[in-house]
Design goal:
The complex is a heterodimer of chains A (411) and B (406). With 411 residues, chain A is of the alpha/beta class. Chain A is built from 18 helices and twelve strands. In chain A, strand 1 (13-16), helix 1 (23-31) and strand 2 (35-40) form a beta-alpha-beta unit. The longest helix of chain A has 24 residues, at 173-196. Chain A is elongated, with a radius of gyration of 26 Å. In chain B, helix 1 packs across helix 9 (177-196). Chain B is 38% helix and 14% strand. Chain B contains 19 helices and twelve strands. The chains are: A alpha/beta (411), B alpha/beta (406). Strand 6 of chain A pairs antiparallel with strand 12 of chain B, so a sheet runs across the interface.
């Protein structure tokens, strides 16, 4: 059998004690080859109760959200609210490089599993706490959720239509931002620990992560005193925005961002297409970003472009625009992604087995291709307690002792 | 500054605009010597991206650019000049990472494809982050963060039913998904190189990390055959879950009542209005079924409250609630971000004192700071040429006169 290619994170042991705010962080480590052990309470981790479910039927082994966010991990069950469970975790920590946890600040201290306690067991430990607001401060004990973090982080205010309430970005992005930055921060600390021998506590705030998604809104306020607002349904600049076409919508950025470098190409295309009135977009004023921001420019562009673009398909506009190197994109539905020829060429979607299915599931694959140490799903997400026997054996717990721990509700 | 995790790591940074510059910025703030290779003949468009100091455009005045390029050094080299490649080679020989986010072919035109670069520095880590990836039928297609929001279905999935797809209102993938995935891949590759001495090529297609964030939605499609559509601010199973008006112009509060206890507490805080006592609102399933009507009824209550006061009252009862903060709120009024020291003011050579984001994490031992404001265009050209590339001052003058270093 050919040996598997080397993994960038081989030999790195991670304990993922987290939930929806941190499981994607653990997945990033696991799919690059770290030995990530998902540590769940005996009743199952939070994501096991989150939809979508296999055939829409809830069940401990049926959450597709769980199945996606926990690929490549081993899984054990452990009750961290028991003294024995806490002792077992400390024994596991002795051979661990990274912890990912998402408890409310103070919970891990009450369990005597806080950073200071565990660093005594393992000085090189990188202890990653991902929380809604960070470990300390006036909101540290506030209740949160994806929506609340988007609100307090300022991104929610930028989303949606001027005439309705702000609309949040889809898909638990605040949780995912926290996970992504958690992974980057933890990995920085790992590199540091592997050279210095000293780990540290990494304190990630989901709210702060969301603030980093405010684009240039912070600087607009600081430098020009402007509070940026939401603008869905409107052109942001002339030629930049969502337009309805024959079979859906497209997103056009006729001028690009910053310098107006694409405008000439865009108008050249529309003239080639014999769009009625295209020559009205040719004057010197259209080369100026300030003019594109004006209501007049937006109105003229809409008068000409809106009737024309309604007669064309997404695929046609995408192909013809991109052939001329114009930043135009179709507004894809999820099903369109499965048919996308570029993603197909790159073999982006991958097949992963599921314990309750005979055939594999298709899910998003490598977010990056590393030539020497390829991204790889090591195994499907673990069944609850699937690796109890092998993991506990690794810290010297025999089958008989494990059975006792099981009946005591510890594992 | 000593003791930063990436001290001693050097990045020859050809990245520009959003995602690429932000990825290398994360590493620059953490100690890497990131040398941004620019040219006045082919300006990083973000240098001309609003807003500007005092509203006046200029290559050194963009706040958008500044926030994405902290802690870096800038050198200007006209890559089209025949002498440019020799200088770049000297830089690459002393670099650990070469990064770019051009469409495929641009680096190759410079003579800096991966094979050429790895011949100059065999253990180089080479990050290419084009929109569509290095190979494939649409590899030459280009776009911005907003294009990626559209292509990945995030735009389609975000908005109100029956309205135009809304998207995030930003170039979201540029700001977090792509920089974080790129930085994580680079750090993993650095670890591998440290252990084996081997570099590698990283091909990050900017479409792909954002699609990776939609895994559960795509599995619902591939496994259950369900096509998701946008649903405003609704939650999969909890209600009420939305954004409600408060006192003032465009003031809103987000409330997420995740269970019956939080619903009961919400009702009490709002003064137990009679409608809320009706049996039809018992249980999340019932509330979720009629959530549009519920949202309207709730809005009539919340609109009598100041958003901050209602948030405090709800949080005191354990109900997840948050003011929908605008940029002024997050900068000037949010006590938690202030407590975290999120806002950093740095003195920029042309912009003067300006506001920057801190990284969103803190370490117990390593300081998390910004090492320097964004560089002026070409600010460090001479310093890098003389101090790093070993070029004499007079030769630098010649290179400037010949138009190589512009």
């Amino acid at each position: 059998m050919p040996s598997a290619p080397p993994a960038a994170l081989a030999g790195l042991r991670v304990l993922d004690l987290s939930g929806p705010m941190g499981n994607y962080c653990g997945k990033l480590f696991a799919d690059l080859g770290a030995d990530v052990i998902l540590v769940e309470p005996p009743s199952g981790t939070r994501l096991r109760f989150e939809p979508p479910f296999l055939e829409d039927t809830p069940g401990l082994e049926r959450s597709l959200a769980f199945a996606y966010h926990n690929t490549s991990k081993r899984g054990i069950s452990l009750n961290l609210d028991t003294v024995t469970g806490q002792e077992l975790l400390r024994r596991l920590v002795a051979g661990t490089d990274v912890i990912i946890e998402t408890e409310k600040p103070g919970v891990m201290r009450r369990r005597a599993l806080n950073y200071e306690a565990l660093a005594r067991v393992r000085p090189g430990l990188v202890y990653t706490s991902i929380t809604p607001f960070g470990q300390t401060g006036p909101y540290a004990q506030y209740e949160s959720s994806d929506l609340i973090a988007l609100a307090l982080g300022g991104l929610l205010y930028l989303g949606g239509y001027p005439d309705t309430a702000p609309v949040r970005v889809y898909g638990n992005q605040a949780y995912l931002c926290a996970s992504m930055y958690g992974a980057v921060a933890a990995m920085l600390a790992v590199l540091d620990a592997e050279s210095s021998g000293s780990g540290q506590h990494v304190d990630v705030s989901m709210q702060e992560c969301v603030v980093l998604g405010l684009e240039n809104a912070v600087q607009f306020y600081d430098l020009e005193g402007i509070v940026r607002k939401r603008y869905a349904g409107e052109q942001r600049w002339a030629g930049t925005g969502v337009f309805k076409c024959a079979d859906g919508h497209i997103y056009l950025m006729a001028g690009g961002i910053g310098a107006n470098k694409f405008w000439g190409r865009s108008v050249g295309w529309l003239r080639d297409e014999n769009m009625p009135g295209a020559e009205r977009l040719l004057g010197e004023e259209w080369t100026r970003v300030e003019y594109l921001r004006s209501d007049e420019a937006k109105r003229i562009f809409a008068e000409l472009f809106v009737p024309w673009v309604r007669t064309k398909t997404k695929a046609y506009l995408y192909r013809e625009g991109q052939r001329r190197h114009i930043p135009i994109a179709p507004i894809n539905a999820p099903a369109d992604l499965l048919e996308n020829r570029q993603l197909k060429f790159r073999k982006y979607f991958v097949e992963v087995m599921h314990p309750l299915r005979d055939t594999p599931m298709l899910m998003p694959g490598a977010p990056y291709k590393l030539s020497e140490t390829p991204w790889r799903i090591q195994r499907p997400a673990p069944r609850l307690g699937e690796h109890n026997a092998e993991v506990y054996r690794e810290i010297g717990i025999s089958g008989g002792e494990l059975a006792r721990l099981f009946s005591a509700g510890v594992v | 500054m000593s003791g930063l995790p990436l001290q001693g790591i050097r990045i020859a940074d050809f990245s520009w605009l959003g995602a690429g510059s932000y990825a290398t910025k994360i590493l620059a703030d953490m100690g890497a010597d990131v040398i941004k290779i620019e040219s006045s003949t082919r300006l990083d468009s973000l240098r001309m991206g609003a807003p500007y100091k005092d509203g006046k455009p200029g290559v050194n005045r963009s706040g958008y650019f500044a926030d994405r390029n902290t802690s870096k050094r800038s050198v200007t080299i006209d890559m089209k000049h025949p002498r440019a490649l020799g200088l770049i080679r000297k830089l690459i020989e002393q670099s650990d990472i070469v990064a770019n986010n051009f469409t495929p072919g641009v680096m190759e035109k410079f003579g800096l494809g991966y094979p050429q670069v790895s011949a100059m520095k065999p253990d180089i880590i080479y990050l290419a982050m084009s929109m569509q990836g290095a190979e494939g039928p649409e590899r030459d297609y280009l776009g911005y963060g907003s294009s990626i929001v559209s292509l990945t279905a995030l735009q389609h999935l975000t908005g109100m039913p029956g309205r135009e797809p809304a998207g995030t209102g930003t170039n979201y993938p540029d700001h977090i998904p792509n920089p974080c995935h790129a930085a994580f891949a680079l750090l993993a590759a650095l670890r591998y190189r440290r252990r084996t001495g081997r570099g590698q090529y990283i091909d990050l297609a900017q479409l792909e990390p954002t699609i990776a964030l939609l895994g559960p939605t795509l599995l619902d499609l591939t496994v259950n055959g369900r096509n998701h559509e946008c649903n405003g601010n609704q939650h999969d199973w909890a209600a009420p879950h939305g954004v409600y008006p408060c006192v003032g112009d465009d003031r809103w509060i987000a409330i997420a009542a995740m269970d019956d206890m939080q619903w009961a507490a919400l009702v009490e805080v709002l003064g137990s209005p009679a409608w809320a006592a009706e049996a039809r609102w018992n249980g999340a399933v019932a509330r979720r079924r009629d959530c549009e009507e519920l949202d309207q009824l709730l809005g009539r209550e919340t609109v009598r409250w100041g958003a901050e006061k209602l948030m405090a009252a709800l949080q005191a009862r354990g109900v997840p609630a948050g003011v929908v903060q605008n940029t002024e709120d997050v900068i000037k009024h949010d006590p938690q971000l202030a407590h975290r020291g999120h806002w950093i003011r740095l003195n920029h050579a042309e912009m003067g004192e300006a506001l920057y984001n801190a990284p969103p994490f803190r370490f117990s031992r390593t300081p998390v700071e910004l090492r320097a404001p964004a560089p002026l265009l070409g600010e460090h050209t001479r310093e890098v040429c003389v101090g790093l590339l070993g070029i004499s001052e007079t030769e630098v003058d010649e290179l400037i006169a010949q138009g190589v270093l512009k």
